[in-house]
Amino acid sequence: MNRASTLRAEEIDGDLARAWDEMVVGRGVQADVFDTHAWASSWLTTRPRLAENVRVPAVFDGNRPLALLPLELDSTGRAHELGRGQRERTRVVIGTPEPRPEVLGALAAELRRLGIRELTLHRVPSRDPATHALLGALRGAGYAVDVRERMTDMIESTPDGWSGYRARHRGFDGAVGQAMRRAGQLWKLRVVAYGAPGGPPLAAGLADHEELFDLSWKGRLGAAPERRRLLTRALDERGLARLYVLYAEDRAIASCLGVRIGPVMHWHTVAYDPAAALLSPGNVVHWRAQELAFAECGLTLIDLLPGASPLKDRVSSERPALLDVCAARVPRRVLPLLRGAREVQRAVPIATRARVGRLRARVGAVPPGHAGTARRLEARPATEVPARPSPELVLDQPTLRLLTVACARRGPQEMRADWGPDDRWYRIGAGPLAVARVDVGEPVPTLREVVRYDPAYTLEAIALMLADLLASPVRYLDEVPVRDPRLRWPRAWTGLDPGGAEHAALGHATADPDAADPDAADHTAAAPDAEADAGGREHAEHGAAETPGTHNAPGTHKAPGTPGAPGAFSRAEGA
């Protein structure tokens, strides 16, 4: 015979926790990660002060749970689902695809015995038959019930497998294929499935996943980093978590965390490096993860979680409603008034916090004032012979994509908006060490932007090497943007004119052998913290007289600010 009782948080032991998660697996296509004990325990562990308010009304057959409804209670007899504000959906936890009315009837009677006068449940799936059975049980227990649609799920049934799913979204599949081909011109792309059978352990990919979260707009695993870590660990221990990471060469640029419960795949979160947005890394990792998930074992349902987004709109076709449920022991005609009062009560603090936030932003805003003074500097070459062949980059489409990613822009058009009509890009060093944008339309070539692939080189050292390349002085401000991209320059990509590719050391002045100059030494081993050239090597502030003793030893560039290094300037000129 079934018995009903109510548990406190501390009464849930390991055996009950395992049985709880097994019930979720038994739901078939209604299985939901937010119903698991793994989710509930990760939420509660990070909020121990709320444990005393947690109650779990339950129905048992002996020691085997048949139904659970984790709730938070207050002292006035009001209750709501556990984890409000963090969970995407709420359901009654049962262990079968179809509900048993007598079990849910016993659960509703336990709610009344517990003294709950008002129960609110947010985002209850309308497609779940257990939802409607629970509403009927609440009415049978003497509660007036009000139901309203608030938002929709984002799901798709996939009885025809990957081939059918892919065919239904052939436009998205083609866009991802095109993005991968374009990115593949520069970097080798691969997706690694962590936590999947036969694959590397999930823990091996977590560092890359967390780094991508830090880089993304979500930041530090979103709003609750510790809870996310605990949940991922708990799901991995149960064999439910899957982590897919997209790599460009050896750099992670996107990740997708999924939860596989039986025939259902929940796509929990996607994070990517915004600097690589031009490559569509979020779309690529998600679509490739879908393919790998189908290859692991057949799926019946794809669950993208509630809430609209461009990605979800393109790869899901079903929008079943999610319901907000309010059940109260009051006359039915009074319930709409009670619910309206509760919504106002909930909305006022939200609006007040938003208003306070706007006021703080206005008060804390820095008033406009004078910008800091920048120094205008000039690097002078050690040779009069420009590099041959020219190190100027050919701005074809792959090179533009490479620069867009390196400069962390959304597209070439946005990147070129800052360029002048006479701006040119030059490759510096054999790696290259850096690439630089130079305005050659000025009376003296002027450095505008640097993408640095070797962070050991200072802006000053790069300017000196650029002056050697052009055999011309180069002017720049000490506030020139210097970008250090995560993605390395592709090994097989020069970005130069194919007709001029035969040269041994890009980025170093190549002198005419008939006009040998002992001061135009090869700077192949130059490093920014070594000593710089003697015999005419100059780096001074623009407009300043040359100062004796500001040159260094041959062949290298020294870090600014050290004795005898470029940067021991006689005066600064404001720009």
Major β-sheet annotation: 9 strands, mixed
Could you name the ranges where pLDDT drops below 50 across 5 or more consecutive residues?
A: 500-575
Approximately how much beta-strand content do the residues carry?
A: 15-25%
State Rg.
Answer: 32 Å
- Using DSSP, what is the number of strands? 22
Briefly, what is this?
By secondary structure, this protein is α+β, with helices and mostly antiparallel strands.
Question: What do you see in this structure?
Answer:
The chain has 575 residues and is an alpha+beta fold. Helix content is 30%, strand content 22%. It contains 14 helices and 22 strands. It has helices spanning 14-25, 37-45, 101-113, 129-140, 161-168, 170-184, 203-215, 225-237, 281-296, 310-315, 335-364, 397-406, 412-416, 459-470, and strands at 2-8, 54-61, 64-68, 71-73, 78-81, 93-94, 118-125, 144-152, 155-157, 189-194, 241-248, 251-261, 264-272, 301-303, 321-328, 376-380, 423-428, 434-439, 446-452, 474-477, 482-483, 538-541. Strands 1, 2, 3, 4, 5, 6, 7, 8 and 15 form a nine-stranded mixed β-sheet that branches. Strands 9-14-13-12-11-10 form a six-stranded mixed β-sheet, with helices on both faces. Strand 17 and strand 18 (434-439) form a beta hairpin. Helix 6 crosses helix 9. Residues 500-575 have low confidence and may be disordered.
